[in-house]
């Protein structure tokens, strides 16, 4: 009997050595989860045997348990590397065969699909033609590497302060080349439908005149030129013009804003630059200006609400416009909820999709299939799929990888213990052999 007990102990110790050795071998494997041996004792019994007096029959390897505790998050230089901090697995597809992994090695293949280092496609929510994430529609994630098409400017929002202490210009008529003919000015780039940049300049003239009858106060003229030309007529340098009044507290008097030329209108508390014709110069001296052939928005909305007239220096507090030129892909960003953004050289960004994660009621029931991959089994239960940070799912750290959760120090100690167990069980067999030999030698 002792031979079998010792043999079972040797087999168990050998399994323990193999499991510990495998952990040590994968101490540097990204996303690897260590395993441990779980042993059970053995008893032989019969219907008439008394279990209280039963002698054990050895040991049995009951289970090889996977330990899914968190590994260290290590930062890398690859924007598509991802580490999961918390619960969940990346979902990958190998021609429709689904597997799960914690190894966040990701890049792109020649078709722009996001794949891991095995060539498996990363799964997630894709986007539609309007750039909106299609929640619930799971498929292969990909990166669109084509240039971003330009967008013509349709709206400008601006907030400025005009100096109430400034004087009326000393030179008339208005001349954009003569700073004494206006009080202050500012410029902003706008874009036509081909992505050509144009400079829209606003010139502000203080109309204050205390000697007039009645006196004029809190009243300004804003002249607008694009590329130094009239927005509607590139052959002219006569600006479009609008009168901008303020109340006694320095706040914009929206009710009395009055366009004074046909190219500017005012409705719904917003100005509108109408019928802009994008132009270009022939480069000659003097230059001849004509349409550049690009289209533009029928009207450019111009929102100056929030502008003031206080006794402080002229300043533009905020300005935004919604147009942009052609953009080339310059980089990728992934936030902690898995949304993938493409950055372009024109300063714009565009969402490319969203990474999803899966979790299981019994993660130890997953079946390891190698390559740091697991597949669903009857013991694991069905996957619960969602976006990072949703429910109990962990968050994503982009440009980082989750290291193996193996503790080398602990594994080396376990290795010594397994070796001692192996030697001790071998000693049991050796002793049983000596006892048996003594019996055989009796005469």
Number of domains: 3
* CATH topology descriptor of the largest domain: Tick-borne Encephalitis virus Glycoprotein, domain 1
Estimate the mean pLDDT confidence.
93
Compute the number of strand runs: 32
> Briefly, what CATH class of the largest domain?
Mainly Beta
Secondary-structure-based class equals mainly beta
Low-confidence runs: none
Q: What's the gyration radius in Å? A: 38 Å
- Give the % helix: 10-25%
CATH architecture of the largest domain: Sandwich
Number of helices: 2
Q: Describe the main β-sheet briefly.
A: 11 strands, antiparallel
Binned strand content: 35-45%
Q: How many angstroms does the end-to-end distance come to?
A: 24 Å
Q: Could you give me the name of the CATH homologous superfamily of the largest domain?
A: Flagellar hook protein FlgE
Shape: rod-shaped
Features:
39% strand; mainly beta; Tick-borne Encephalitis virus Glycoprotein, domain 1; 3 domains; 443 residues
Describe this structure in words.
The chain is mainly β. It has three domains: 2-69 and 405-440, no CATH class; 73-148 and 329-402, no CATH class; 155-321, Tick-borne Encephalitis virus Glycoprotein, domain 1. Helices cover 13% and strands 39% of the residues. It has helices at residues 2-25, 408-440, and strands at residues 35-43, 56-66, 73-75, 82-85, 89-94, 97-101, 106-108, 114-116, 121-127, 133-140, 155-163, 184-191, 197-206, 219-226, 240-245, 258-259, 264-267, 270-274, 279-281, 289-291, 299-303, 308-310, 315-321, 329-334, 339-344, 349-355, 357-359, 367-370, 373-375, 384-386, 395-398, 400-402. The strands form eight sheets. Strands 5, 6, 9, 10, 24, 25, 26, 27, 28, 29 and 30 form an eleven-stranded antiparallel sheet that branches. Strands 11, 17, 18, 21, 22 and 23 form a six-stranded mixed sheet that branches. Strands 12-13-14-15-16 form a five-stranded antiparallel sheet, with no helix packed on it. A hairpin with a 2-residue loop joins β17 (264-267) and β18. The relative contact order is 0.20. The mean pLDDT is 93.
């Amino acid at each position: 009997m002792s031979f079998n007990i010792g043999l079972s102990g040797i087999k168990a110790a050998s399994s323990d050595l193999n499991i510990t050795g495998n952990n040590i071998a994968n101490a540097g494997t990204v996303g690897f989860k260590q395993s441990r041996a779980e042993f059970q004792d053995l008893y032989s019994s019969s219907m008439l045997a008394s279990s209280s007096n039963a002698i054990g029959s050895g040991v049995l390897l009951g289970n090889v348990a996977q330990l899914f505790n968190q590994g260290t998050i290590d930062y890398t230089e690859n924007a598509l590397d991802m580490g999961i901090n918390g619960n969940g697995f990346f979902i990958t597809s190998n021609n429709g065969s689904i597997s799960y992994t914690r190894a966040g090695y990701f890049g792109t293949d020649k078709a722009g699909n996001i794949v891991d280092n095995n060539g498996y496609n990363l799964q997630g929510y894709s986007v539609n033609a309007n750039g909106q994430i299609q929640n619930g529609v799971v498929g292969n994630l990909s990166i669109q590497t084509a240039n971003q098409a330009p967008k013509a400017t349709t709206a400008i929002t601006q907030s400025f302060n005009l100096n109430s202490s400034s004087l009326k210009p000393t030179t008339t008529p208005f001349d954009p080349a003569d700073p004494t003919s206006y009080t202050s000015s500012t410029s902003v780039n706008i874009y036509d439908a081909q992505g050509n940049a144009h400079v829209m300049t606003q010139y502000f003239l203080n109309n204050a005149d205390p000697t007039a009858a009645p006196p004029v106060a809190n009243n300004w003229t804003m002249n607008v030129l694009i590329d130094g030309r009239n927005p509607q007529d590139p052959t002219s340098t006569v600006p479009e013009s609008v009168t901008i009044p303020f109340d006694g507290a320095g706040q914009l008097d929206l009710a009395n804003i009055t366009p004074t030329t046909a190219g500017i209108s005012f409705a719904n508390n917003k100005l509108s630059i109408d019928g802009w014709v994008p132009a270009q110069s022939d480069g000659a001296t003097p230059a001849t200006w004509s349409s550049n052939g690009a289209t533009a928005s029928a009207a450019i909305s111009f929102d100056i609400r929030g502008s003031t007239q206080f006794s402080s220096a002229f300043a533009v507090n905020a300005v935004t416009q919604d147009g942009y030129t052609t953009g080339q892909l310059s980089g990728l960003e992934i936030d902690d909820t898995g949304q993938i953004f493409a950055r372009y050289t024109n300063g714009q960004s565009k969402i490319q999709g969203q990474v999803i994660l899966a979790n299981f009621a019994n993660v130890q029931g997953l079946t390891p299939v190698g390559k740091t991959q697991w597949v669903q089994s009857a013991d694991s239960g069905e996957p619960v799929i969602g976006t990072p940070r949703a429910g109990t799912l962990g968050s994503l750290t982009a440009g980082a990888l989750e290291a193996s959760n193996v503790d080398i120090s602990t594994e080396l100690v376990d290795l010594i213990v397994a070796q001692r167990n192996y030697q001790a069980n071998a000693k049991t067999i050796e002793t049983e052999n000596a006892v048996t030999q003594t019996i055989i030698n009796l005469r």
